[in-house]
Fold this sequence. Notes:
alpha+beta; Alkaline Phosphatase, subunit A; Jelly Rolls; eight-stranded antiparallel sheet; 28 strands; 18% helix; elongated; binds calcium ion
Amino acid sequence: xxxxxxxxxxxxxxxxxxxxxxxxxxxxxxxxxxxxxxxxxxxxxxxxxxxxxxxxxxxxxxxxxxxxxxxxxxxxxxxxxxxxxxxxxxxxxxxxxxxxxxxxxxxxxxxxxxxxxxxxxxxxxxxxxxxxxxxxxxxxxxxxxxxxxxxxxxxxxxxxxxxxxxxxxxxxxxxxxxxxxxxxxxxxxxxxxxxxxxxxxxxxxxxxxxxxxxxxxxxxxxxxxxxxxxxxxxxxxxxxxxxxxxxxxxxxxxxxxxxxxxxxxxxxxxxxxxxxxxxxxxxxxxxxxxxxxxxxxxxxxxxxxxxxxxxxxxxxxxxxxxxxxxxxxxxxxxxxxxxxxxxxxxxxxxxxxxxxxxxxxxxxxxxxxxxxxxxxxxxxxxxxxxxxxxxxxxxxxxxxxxxxxxxxxxxxxxxxxxxxxxxxxxxxxxxxxxxxxxxxxxxxxxxxxxxxxxxxxxxxxxxxxxxxxxxxxxxxxxxxxxxxxxxxxxxxxxxxxxxxxxxxxxxxxxxxxxxxxxxxxxxxxxxxxxxxxxxxxxxxxxxxxxxxxxxxxxxxxxxxxxxxxxxxxxxxxxxxxxxxxxxxxxxxxxxxxxxxxxxxxxxxxxxxxxxxxxxxxxxxxxxxxxxxxxxxxxxxxxxxxxxxxxxxxxxxxx
Length: 654
Ligand SMILES: [Ca+2]
Ligand SMILES: [Ca+2]
């Protein structure tokens, strides 16, 4: 392995830390004004895609200035290499698995950041901070999840990724059926425009910047928190005309140069208002580059793989923090730190209260202040969509065997078109990131004691936050916010707590006890909420024993439809009742038609009868088995998701 520039940075960083610590004697005066916080978050910007980190083919003078006036980090991690998970962590100080925001939420997602989760904006509000979110949100797009519900006074931006739109890779609108609705631009909770063309994408960075600067100008007198989350440089790339062709690299470089200009505008606004001294500015990225986009993707430098992986190129990102008078100029931090540490650090700086619920972040003020020997973060857990793929302690990274996307050995796309992924199994290994930042040499055999210790850390992670690789359920996982189906959460009826016998258990991917069918609780729009019994490609039958005869007047079955997730209403539901368990009386069946319908609904399918004495009730839900012709998954196995079997009537009078 040839020594990389990163290794050089690493070594020089240690020297700088040591030097700085000796002349940094804590002589700073206490801030007389509250500290403002500006958090700039870019999308898919690679570890190397800032001048000071080694960018090639474009320049970032404003980011480099930010670093020269503050600190930049060599070992800083977004929580996961994917958008929604990363953002949930940034704003809550929690690993994404703790708050159950996994992957990248799609426009038909029925979950979002739980309204009870506490964000950076929410810890600052009680202190009188003005708060604004500008740009990409991606933590749920319904008004119940948008920034105004999470502590922000104002919001302007896209609710999810800018490629979730009905436009093809050439920028041409898709004429037929698209997976995606028009891409909304949101002000507050309202859609004010749609982003329909590449020229609309071109304006996003400048429009976000104008909003951010307006907010700073308006809020300069009081403390404020600005969260500026650029949609760029996520594909499809867009750049304003004055930056088009401005870099040697091409469009990606142009886009970064406009983001850099944006950073300069923010810094200028702080200077103009005389508040640079009492403002902490943080710049980082949500995950590594989407490498199969070739010249429309960034670079990880020496790191292995990129976005969508738990190898270093996925979560390790550039990070710069400036806080004049408190963070030494031109300092470099090679301590372990993460986006999840920003919330507790901001809390420590501002005196805000931490959330009452447990979080995973730690206060890294000691790193910012170059306190000698400070190691506020000793470990990092590399989750990806619920899988614990690796853990790090100090210089050591223990990778657990897992399947992953890979960009190695496949030809990337170009000019806005993606190339394919490879999928590989990464074997378990131990890497020494200080000597081998590229994760190339497994040193597990030479360090069995370290392997054992990191395996124990992995076990702690699994028991706390779960692990889909080993089928573990975490004891501290909290649920996501779930979109309401606009109805009560519970229902009272005669079959509550009846004995249930079913033709099949719920599918192993949705391991739900069939007792949920009569627990009086109704499922939400989130089919993963643990309240729906799921079967794929087969019919489902349940027989209830009410343990005594009752007078039944109506039998109903609650069924979910999420066609985009291949969940259909049963095409037929049959009902029958019996008083002795052998003589059955069929009630009227209910059929549904399988028409295209994008709405996520729960339909209660019912059959009424004149009061009949019955102790047993049987419900049979007939599946489509195969998805119909019009469905994108035509011929594939359809799912049905069913929940409560509701028995109405009255007890028999003696
Ligand atoms: Ca991203
Ligand atoms: Ca139920």
